[in-house]
Amino acid sequence: MKRQIKNNVYWIGKIDWELETFHGADYSIDNGSSQNAYLIQEEKTVLIDTVWKPHSTEFIDNLKSEVDLEKIDFIVMNHGEIDHSGSLPALMEKIPDTPIYCTANAVKSLTGQFHHPEWNYKVVKTGDSIDIGNGKKLVFVEMRMLHWPDSMATYLTGDNILFSNDAFGQHFAVEELFNDKADTCLLWTEAQKYYANILNPFSPLVKKKVEEIQALNLPIDIIAPSHGAIWRDNPLQIIEKYYEWSQDYQENQITIAYDTMWEGTMQLAHKIGSEITRLSPDTKVKIFNISKADKNDIMTEVFKSKAIALGSPTVGQNILSSVGGWLDFLKELKFTKKKAAVFGCYGWSGEGTKLLRGRLEEAGFEVVEPEIRCNWNPTEEVFQKAETLAEALCH
User: Domain spans of the chain?
Assistant: First the structure.
């Protein structure tokens, strides 16, 4: 069933309440998600994006109930990733000659995934446009690395709608479609989680792209992303947030993350947290056991933090594998201008804190000098070192 967005523009996607993970199992879904596809019915009939393959039959049946597939003049693929393009092969079986407007990199992506070089690709770049009748045009804007090299956005003149693809979205199921109908707290929580875990590595490019969009001085009445709520109430608020988030974002918060074998490192984590609160009562403190907490939720809190403390015991002359894998993800996200401290217990060789320090520096953190390296279980004398570590993080 299509649902009206504005005038002759309709949503024809899939609200996916059952989705639990994304990017394989790399991103956790807590409040459902959606794959947003759009149908424009002016003098030209245009489909913008499709949905994920598991929903392709439902998607095409819905599309057929609203429009003769043969009447679709062309398809815009803003991005070739499978959650947007998964239904394209099944659709193209029915309308094989339909032009597909996309970037040159999207041609590589789509042919690499689906092996159909014969499809009728029409390559576009920033500033290219196509007339769809009734005085309206689609204008294309490349969005490279937001978050793939093939990404672009499409702007509809007249109705002033920016189809932004993965930019400005959230993994969030909103049955009512629009941001003014959504739970505001959940909406912003999911928008920030999405930015922190998917787009933060490309923050310098986000900043430049937002400045480019602002310089175009386009009237934007609606931002229609590929996931989550459609921004129709003050749509520029999400662009402003992206601009803020793209610039070494931090709040007055410190996040403590650790894993532990026999609770000694856990005791250090909690002591560091209480010392931060004692020294700086206005600083928000978050404490997570890496092996028990959701990694995407932890990274969202790291994104918000001015500093982190990371702990692991030494095991096998190394750190715990849970912490090692978490550090790989931390490095991937490319956080900037944040401090870090290290702590951990050991029984014999004690390399853990040195290894943590090196890995954090590789991930771009400024690692403070004070650390807690505790032989066996913490004593009161060891706990006293938490004050010095907390001071270094707070100031």
Answer: 3-245, 254-394
User: Distance between CA 215 and CA 209 in Å, rounded?
Assistant: 10
Strands (E), 42-86: 45-48, 74-76
The number of residues making up the chain comes to: 395
Residue type, 353: T
Return the DSSP state at 245: H
pLDDT tens digits, one per residue of 102-155: 999 999 999 999 999 999 999 999 999 999 999 999 999 999 888 889 999 999
- Is the preceding peptide bond at 55 cis, omega within 30 degrees of 0? no
**Distance (Å, whole) CA 48 – CA 38:** 5
pTM for the whole structure: 0.95
Domain 3-245 has CATH 3.40.50.300: no
What DSSP element (H or E) covers 37?
none
d(CA 172, CA 227): 7
Which residues does the annotation mark as catalytic?
23, 79, 81, 83, 147, 166, 194, 227
Residue 335 has phi, psi (to 5 degrees) of: -70, 150
CATH pick for 254-394 out of 3.40.720.10, 3.30.428.10, 3.40.50.360, 3.40.50.720 = 3.40.50.360
